[in-house]
Amino acid sequence: METFLGYFGGFRELLDPLNLAVMIGGFLIGTFFGAMPGLTSVLAIALLLPITYQIDVVPSLIMCASIFMAGMYSGSITATTINIPGAPSSMMTAIEGHRLMKQGKGANALGHAALGSMVGGTLGALMLMAFMPVAARLSLLIQTPGKFSLVLFALVVIVIVERGAIAKSAIAVLLGIMIATIGIDVLQPIPRFNFGTEVLIEGIDLMPLVIGAFAVSEILVQAQSWNVTSGVDADEIRKIKIRRQEFIPLWSEVREIGVWTYLKGSVLGYLIGVLPGAGGSMAAFVSYVEARRSSKRPQDYGKGSREGIAAAESANNAMCGGAFVPMLMFGIPGDPTTAIVLGVLVINGLQPGARLLENQADLISPMFASLIVSALILIPLTLYLLGPLFLRMVTVSRGLLYTGIAVVALVGSYVATLSIFQMFLSLLFGILAFVMRRQNYSTVALLLGFILGPDLEQYFRRAITLTDGGPLVFLTSLDSLFFLLLTAAFVYVIVIRKPKDSIAA
Amino acid sequence: MDRRRLLSAEFGLPISLLILTTIYLAETFRLRSQMSESFWEGPRAMPVLACVLMYALLVLVLVRQFRAASTAPAEGSAVRPILVTVATAIYIFAFEPLGYGLSTILFVSALFVIFGFKLEKPISFAIHAVAVTAVFYVLYAVLFGIRLPELYGII
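YS: structure for the whole thing
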């Protein structure tokens, strides 16, 4: 009961002018980055990470949540209007939404995308709040060997979901783990891998890795494929005429889609969000395919199906709620956004786990409230008020945009710790991530390996020390055995049952 | 096999990682635990395990790439990313000595040139360069009160 009262306190916190401003500001930034092809909400949060060093944890988390929700929804704007998904999670929306656009029903498609996002985002956040106390109790049951196997499970899933590049993804995870070992040892006060230098004794901070991997590398990727005349066609955008009243979906259309489609998409999206490494694209894809499979009108799919839009959009926004569960309860982020949110928590001295909900619910409940308000109020409101404007905003010059991003990324990496060394690290990781991306090595796996590496090592060594045994302890401990069997089951389902060519490096 | 392919990032990246892993592994053997404990409990266990797995996976990737007939050609030119990297490295070196204002305006101008932004309109080019520098100065120095490096006490 206290937990639920704490959640209500979160909504009260949102009325604070600063919190309200960062939520709305974050939502608008997330919408822009999500709508702009080539930019993502992960990039927005990465660029704003240094700012979280300057403001309190509550507004930082509120901002991250609203960016996350906005970025997941706004990819549908360009996906529908110009058939270029602003975010990968809007790929399925592009298939159906752009067909409707060609039929002169673009605003209607955008309205259905917003409604799906609104329902999915809200339900996902509500499920997060409802199941958090249960997850907290479950997390208390897991002992040290089990925690090791749980982290291992997360890392294995992160690797195997990169179908087609599993070996390369595993290399990226290991590289992240190795980078994380630089600095003071996790259990003893001895420096490791500092190569005799003082600057490496404190280890590598999350911020330069995030800025390098997601901002600097993006600038380099864009620079490589640069064509001054490419990008969004401004003339095409100007020709698009959208009337605000058409944004509101007709009740008959909503009834035709059916409540079950929204509910099923939301639950699927939430559950996929809980899985590490899965993300919004997989949520939207699975929900879309399932909706088509069980649809009464499968023939409409691919020709402008509103049901398809509703299924995909409700799932990718519900994923936001699910992604927070493993991060908040076990410190296991499932995607880059929650990885950065975890960084914000750690920077502010908060440790994920059951006690976070028990003792510091006042700090995280505003983030839950921000997820709900962003989904329930800001998505429909911004579409109605700013929908046509967002369409114009995507015509902004890419030269100006990427120059601005470069300045924010580099100055941001300086301002967090006032260190030129951090700027150098950002550049270094940016170059590394650029080469990795070009060769199909996952930078998300690199980041998650870096974040989960210390936990993996700590639980591994602690488990062996506590039980005074060898690595067999992981097979004799029941909770550990459960997660190892779960890992084996996932490997079997995703890798072994798949055709051989899908696991090629 | 084509020599150019062997020198490309396709092979260059795993080979570089192989070298880095070897340096990392060598450093692992210099680690000394402060307590008497088994190998698995000590600070070397995870790094050694990571190295063993890394070697195995890198060899797997290299063998697969050797066997592959060809690779997809890289999109675009490498010149622009190199220019961006050089401009960024110079910016980082110049950031403290030149101060935020001068170094950033030069960096922004360099990127505008690399990205071909407003090259045909010098006045608009200059206005945009000053505006970008000013916007982020206001964000960091004014809104968040962060002391950015200055040149002779000016921004």
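YS: worth flagging: Chain B touches chain A through 70 residues (CB under 8 Å).
IM: good catch. Also The two ends of chain B are 55 Å apart (CA to CA).
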